[in-house]
Amino acid sequence: GNSVTQMEGPVTLSEEAFLTINCTYTATGYPSLFWYVQYPGEGLQLLLKATKADDKGSNKGFEATYRKETTSFHLEKGSVQVSDSAVYFCALNQAGTALIFGKGTTLSVSS
Amino acid sequence: NAGVTQTPKFQVLKTGQSMTLQCAQDMNHEYMSWYRQDPGMGLRLIHYSVGAGITDQGEVPNGYNVSRSTTEDFPLRLLSAAPSQTSVYFCASSFGQGRANTEAFFGQGTRLTVV
Question: Which among A8, A14, A28 has a CA at the least distance from the CA of A110?
Fold first, then answer.
């Protein structure tokens, strides 16, 4: 079945550091891929998405590229801020079913 | 713009009690789903629906019931609450795959404690 594996956290960085959170997936066909973010005490909100191979999703300085050859969708940001502290979820979606999530990666950024 | 509305936000139940978590969306989305979030487990799919009158089980359906009589509403019923069902529950909705925008929108969550 479909599944998503993302690096375990927590990830602890200093402000302005480079961020990478790895995500790989298993799926048949061509799923859509997403990164969602959850700030403390809130629900999930979409951070970025890519719907086909080689697409790059980007938002708020975050980027991720849909790599079909490596079945990956790694999240990157060049310079993190304290306000980026949150839990990040990688997810995939295919026709006829609901989103499948990874276990989430907690990011903590200190000033 | 209400989006996805979940009620209640907090609930404490005694073991064996039943209750219904409500979820409503006003975006005319076809897909609706319920997840539970537990520490270290991420979000696990309980049940989902691809349209009114159609539901299916997710990864952890035992102890939960759903129905989808309208496009807007997708209630989750706990038949006989157990402490293992203590969790944060999220409802989500989206257009179906094949649409230009398959983004899922989430409610604010229901924090359920079973004692």
Answer: A14
As a three-state string, the secondary structure of A89-106 is EEEEECCCCCCEECCCEE
CB contact under 8 A, A45 and B109: no
- Integer-rounded Cα Rg, in Å, for chain B is 14
* Chain centroid, CA A97 distance in Å: 20
Residues 6+ apart with CB under 8 A from A82: A15, A109, A110, A111
> Residues A97, B44, B110, A87: is their CA dihedral positive or negative?
negative
What's the gap in Å between the CA of B15 and the closest CA on chain A? 26
Has residue B95 got a pLDDT over 90? no
Encoded tokens for A4? 């998503």
Contact in structure between B77 and B87 (CB atoms under 8 Å):
no
Q: Which two tokens stand for residue A57?
A: 């999703």
User: Which residues, listed in sequence order, are joined to residue B106 by a DSSP beta bridge?
Assistant: B92
Gap between the Cα atoms of B67 and B53, Å rounded: 7
Does the beta carbon of A102 lie under 8 angstroms from any beta carbon of chain B? yes
pLDDT tens digit string along A42-62? 889 999 999 889 999 999 999
Interface contact B108-A100, CB threshold 8 A: no
Taking an 8 Å cut-off on Cβ atoms, the answer to whether B50 and A49 are in contact is no
List beta partners, residue B35. B45, B90
Cβ(B45)–Cβ(B64) below 8 Å: no
Note the pLDDT tens digit of each residue in A71-100.
999 999 999 999 999 999 999 987 667 788
